[in-house]
Design a protein that fits this description.
Radius of gyration: 20 Å
Distance between the termini: 20 Å
Order of helices and strands: HHHHHHHHHHHHH
Structural class: mainly alpha
Helix content: over 70%
Amino acid sequence: MKFLNKTLEYLFLIEKGKRFLILFLLSLPMGFFASLAMPSHIYVDWIKNFDVGNNNFLDALQLAGTQDYKSMIIGVVGVIIFGVITLAMMATIISRSLRVGIFKPTRLIREFNESFFPALYVAIIYIPSGIVLKIVFTVFLVFWQSANAVATGLALSIITMLLFFLIVGGLIAVSVLFMPYMTINGINPFHAFHTSFAKCTGETGLKLLVATALPIIAIIVAGAMLGFVEVVWVQVLVESLLYSMLYTYLVALSFIAYYEINALQRVDYPRDYILYRGKK
């Protein structure tokens, strides 16, 4: 829980939540489009209406038609555009705070420009990878449609879905230093990814898996509960907020993990916070 606790400390305890609030507001556009591209509330309808015998790939891709195809496309396009914009700004703000101790978004255009190419490379790697994983996951769903009983097909589909989220968490865990190595060290994407993978395996990788998979699954489960609400604007609003929180956490985690794994000294602890921690 080391990386999870350190990230939550950075976001909520130091400066009393100011950092989280600023980063969260920056990530809201990304969260909105993520709620369109990957809505969680549809899982309830999908489970309630699950049936076997339908081997149509496109139906399985949309979870038996519970996900709107047009909204999904709009969401993916929005995630690509605003993902790069917000990641570039957040990366500059977070890395500067850890390096010089100043957490203050001054000129967002300049901050976007400083980390634009690392953010672009992250989008080039992660978004196609996510699409490929989604296709592989859909293939399994189509395969489970061949089950003789609804209960069997549903159970296998749910297990596959949980494994899918664990794999996503694992891929993020082993590549969590990808962005910081490009932003801070200035190395090229290939070497940044290779170095991240080399640093984030073994025991460190397991700790990072906990720090990534747990929040991802928690956000997905919380979003899935919105399926019982059945009010569209509430579903979109709450899921946008949930995805914004997750995005803020994961970006902060990547830079916190970079400093922890490389045993670098952070200078972002205010004096009053150090004194407070010293008394406990």
